[in-house]
Design brief:
This protein is an alpha+beta fold and 363 residues long. It contains twelve helices and 13 strands. The longest helix has 21 residues.
Length: 363
Amino acid sequence: MTVTNPGIANLEEVVDSLPAEEKALFQRIYAVTTTAGELRPPNSMQPWVRQQFGSLEAVTSQKIVKVTNTVTWEEALFNRLRDRRPIEVREENSLETKLQQARQDDSFQNPKANTPEDVFGRVVGKHCITASNIAKYDGLHGMVIFNEFHPLHFSREQVIDYIDVGWEWAKRAQAKQPQAKYFFFAWNCLWRAGASIYHGHAQVMLTRDRHYAKIEGLRRAALSYRQNYGSSYFTDLFQVHRSVGCAVEKNGIKILAHLTPFRDNEVILMAGELNLPLKERIYEVLACLRDRVGVTSFNLGLVTPPLAETDENWEGFPVMVRVVDRGAPDSQASDVGGIEIYASSVVSSDPIELARQLRQCLD
């Protein structure tokens, strides 16, 4: 059976249509359930419903798809209708207006004068420079400050340089503190993504003893998966995404439109090492999200296996990058509420549609 117009709303049908082996592999990692949310709007509300959502039927019976990763226990509830819900709290000033105002008092304009340096000095790239974060997450916590003020004005060469400089920072930090082996690179773009300073920058961290908790949890889940099934969790994760139209591979880099995203339009990239093809694909994904999907605020997290030998087993753990959309900058309403913090992600974007966009960008 072939599913016409596959999308997240009919993911159950897409999975049922797979060959038996692919379906079994998908169900080894993911559980999918579909339910309907029903309601009855009063007559007085119906004109507004039609105007806001297109029809009464769109809201009286809403299709909700729950996707659960039973290996990592990540979960997402999908309802495309939530993308059209009214958001009453909006900023009066546009993104560009706010950025123009911020440029007038830019503390990162002269980082050598206005930011501290790490005890091992600064790393200077073609398009960025490092600083030591003045209010640290961890003992080794720095920043990669972009020469370009505007956080959405990035080129291929710039993105590659940001990552190269972050990686060089990690190597110098590890040489200073050999017991610190676990690297994390985070790019929070604009205030919706948690950036306290508008000038484009990223965070770099190197921790000791074990990797950060969510990464360590993923390592343990992947190790348990290998012990249970005799195969790589990360290889199988890519395979099941590709089987339902949510993955693409380019130059050896595996790219997934994530089926259990933290928020809308989450993309995962995986590679065997932090090489040039991965850095180029990171730029291409970011550019696609910015230019085609309309993402203006995002979080990017890049994690690598440890920089030096450790007691725990990291066999098969890839270099992994996750990028997620954090919503419109003019909205004052947070995109994360109690359900996302304590229960499951609630998502309005469609990973299958996102994958189509990615394939067009990456061809």
